[in-house]
């Protein structure tokens, strides 16, 4: 019996998932420690790069007639006159206590500023990622199931077109076609300007449901269609390709031939046997896509006028607002590391060969 056969038969029952998770805790703790060290390195790199860039964060705060004494006083008040290593240690100590500093431009605390914008970004990521995964998995299964037919050729053509156009260009094309040309969907802001939803969780779709407002929910959902679709078109093609390639490899295994000789239908072989083994590289690809899509929201939020952390980052860069840029860069890095950690954990749970190694 092949190795793939034992893999299918050794898949854990639902009652065993928790026990396996506890057995994996030492491995997960080790990986979590390495991620923490990586976060520290990322924080150091971001801090140093922002400080050595030839920009003057005080330039936009000082009046044209400011004297050198005024500049020195403001620099001392913000701690920018200290040695670089002392600035970093002070900032890192504050971050560990949950204090990301204050915006140079507005004077607002950076932490609440990020937390206020984060739900908008997370909602967009969830919708775009879910749609992209669904389209990628569905098209991959269809392309493999109808391989050698016009259906596969059509999916390949659509996949090639989707992967050759970046997300921001898809966003612009949708605005021109679906928004301005056909006037099918709204394309500016997260909801219609004449609709107000009380902030409960920060997630607009959920808040509109909690508020009992179908009109607000419908408007928020319509505003999410185009940015989610633009994001999904960047996510789906790699998932489709890796899933189809994995299925082709799996179909060369002996247990597929044995199942076919037993009279098992092709659809059952595909969905109950082959897809389980082909899922492993696909899960890795989904985790990679989820990590990279977080940074891709910056352009989409700017194009569609969504008040997420991407829009906050663009404003902070334009104003040379170092504390806000540092806090957002750390947030992006932390989000990517969390997604990678979740992917590693899922692969360890569902793949016995990784646990054995």
Automatic annotation (TrEMBL):
Pfam families: BPD_transp_1 (PF00528), BPD_transp_1_N (PF19300). It is a multi-pass membrane protein. It is found in: Cell membrane. Keywords: Cell membrane, Membrane, Transmembrane, Transmembrane helix, Transport. The chain crosses the membrane at residues 32-53, 122-146, 167-188, 215-236, 324-350. Residues 118-343 form the ABC transmembrane type-1 domain. Belongs to the binding-protein-dependent transport system permease family. This is ABC transporter permease. It comes from Herbaspirillum lusitanum. The lineage of its organism: Bacteria, Pseudomonadati, Pseudomonadota, Betaproteobacteria, Burkholderiales.
């Amino acid at each position: 019996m092949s190795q793939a056969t034992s893999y299918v038969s050794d898949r854990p029952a639902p009652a065993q998932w928790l026990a396996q998770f506890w057995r994996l805790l030492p491995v997960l703790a080790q990986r979590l420690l390495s991620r923490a060290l990586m976060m520290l390195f990322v924080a150091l790199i971001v801090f140093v790069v922002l400080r050595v860039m030839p920009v003057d964060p005080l330039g936009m705060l000082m009046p044209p007639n400011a004297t050198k004494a005024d500049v020195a006083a403001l620099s001392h008040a913000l701690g920018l006159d200290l040695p670089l290593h002392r600035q970093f240690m002070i900032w890192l100590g504050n971050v560990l206590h949950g204090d990301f500093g204050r915006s140079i431009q507005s004077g607002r605390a950076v932490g609440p500023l990020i937390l206020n914008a984060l739900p908008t970004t997370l909602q967009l990521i969830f919708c775009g990622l879910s749609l992209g995964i669904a389209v990628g998995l569905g098209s991959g299964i269809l392309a493999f199931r109808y391989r050698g037919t016009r259906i596969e050729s059509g999916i390949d053509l659509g996949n090639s077109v989707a992967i050759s156009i970046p997300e921001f260009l898809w966003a612009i094309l949708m605005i021109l076609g679906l928004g301005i040309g056909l006037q099918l969907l709204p394309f500016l802001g997260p909801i219609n300007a004449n609709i107000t939803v009380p902030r409960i969780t920060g997630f607009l779709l959920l808040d509109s449901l909690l508020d009992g407002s179908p009109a607000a929910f419908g408007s928020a959902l319509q505003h999410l269609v185009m940015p989610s679709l633009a994001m999904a078109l960047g996510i789906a093609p790699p998932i489709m390709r890796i899933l189809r390639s994995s299925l082709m490899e799996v179909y060369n295994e002996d247990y597929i031939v044995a199942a076919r000789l037993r009279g098992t239908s092709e659809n059952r072989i595909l969905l109950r046997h082959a897809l389980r083994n082909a899922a492993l590289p696909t899960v890795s690809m989904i985790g990679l896509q989820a990590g990279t899509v977080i940074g891709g929201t910056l352009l989409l939020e700017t194009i569609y006028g969504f008040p997420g952390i991407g829009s906050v980052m663009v404003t902070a860069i334009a104003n040379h607002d170092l504390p806000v840029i540092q806090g957002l860069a750390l947030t992006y890095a932390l989000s990517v590391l969390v997604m990678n950690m979740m992917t590693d954990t899922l692969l360890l749970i569902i793949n016995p060969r990784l646990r054995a190694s």
